[in-house]
Amino acid sequence: MHSATTEGKQPLNLSWINVAFFGTIHALALLAPWFFSWSALGVTIFLHWLFGSIGICLGYHRLLSHRSFQVPKWLEYAIAILGALAIQGGPIFWVAGHRLHHAYTEDEDKDPYSSKRGFWWSHMQWILYPRSEFFEPETYKRFAPELARDPFYCWLNRYFLLLQIPLGILLYVLGGWSFVIYGIFVRSVLLWHSTWLINSATHLWGYCNFKLDDNSRNLWWAAILTYGEGWHNNHHADPKVAKAGLNWWEIDMTWWAIKGLQTLGLAKKVVMPSNQASAKV
User: Fold this and answer.
1) Is the dihedral of CA 1, 111, 94, 195 positive or negative?
2) Pairwise CA distance, residues 217 & 201, whole Å
3) Do residues 244 and 259 lie in contact, with contact meaning Cβ atoms separated by under 8 Å?
4) Can you say how many angstroms the Cα of residue 90 is from the centroid of all Cα atoms in its chain?
């Protein structure tokens, strides 16, 4: 194992397992030019939205991490499965890490992806140099106790990677290796880096609607890539609010989905923005 150090901090061990996993997925995504078809590209875009906006942004983030709204348990489980298909970790791992990010925003020791450690650390190095307190289930599960008590979430947290097998089979049946390459590998790489931009780019660039004690920013192009998550300063101002885009130009596609569920009577107790005018810049 190699190690990296940060000033005044303990050495961090490089996980060659994580390097091999993420490196292999990125390498397989490079096969894309030899398997291109417009329908395969359409699969990538659709699954990027389904697993990204609905699974991660709506499910893992606004529903499970912040409880910004409630849905029937069967629907909550279904949305969590979509989040697990994004290959960003199981729900307990993801929720625990995100709650720590909000509890200790930018703290170099307690925030898993603190931007004060640098762009690349917050973007992806925190995964390649995993710290046990953020990656060991017995440690991180106490930050998502309600999920850790649920047998379904415990199962999904442990076996989320296996969901790629039926997905891969389905994609192969529908469109051969072209759909597999684009629906799993290309989609995973694009969705990873889209999501990671919220940890990295939106703590460096953009504008602020609210004066906060952290460096969270609203970044329009990150918001487009992440279906509304790029309005990060708005989110940090009141994390429980279901709506991230507050001004008319702050497009929030994930909010549209939540609003749709609310219209259908499936989303209840939706947390809306409070009067924060006094906090605005």
Assistant:
1) negative
2) 9
3) no
4) 11
119: its two tokens: 């762009």
- Residue 123: CB partners within 8 Å, gap ≥ 6? 113, 193, 196, 197, 199, 200, 201
Q: Which residue in this structure is represented by tokens 């417009």? A: 38
Tokens 């930050």, residue located: 143
Cβ atoms within 10 Å of 78's Cβ, excluding its own: 14
Strand intervals (E) in the chain: 3-4, 12-13
The structure tokens listed for 261 are 């569920």
Using DSSP's 3-state secondary structure scheme, residue 273 falls into coil
Give CA 149 to chain center in angstroms.
22
Structure token digits, residue 42: 């359409």
Query: What is the total residue count of the chain?
Result: 281
CA 142 to chain centre: 20
Instruction: Select from 235, 241, 228 the least CA-distant residue to 214.
Output: 235
- Alpha carbons 26 and 167: distance in angstroms, whole number: 18
Map tokens 């997905």 to a residue.
167
> Is residue 207 classed as helix, strand or coil in its secondary structure?
strand
| pLDDT values of the chain reduced to their tens digit, one per residue, 281 residues | 334 444 445 678 999 999 999 999 999 999 999 999 999 999 999 999 999 999 999 999 999 999 999 999 999 999 999 999 999 999 999 999 999 999 999 999 999 999 999 999 999 999 999 999 999 999 999 999 999 999 999 999 999 999 999 999 999 999 999 999 999 999 999 999 999 999 999 999 999 999 999 999 999 999 999 999 999 999 999 999 999 999 999 999 999 999 999 999 999 999 999 865 434 65
Q: What is the reported pTM? A: 0.93
Q: Which two tokens stand for residue 233?
A: 């300063």
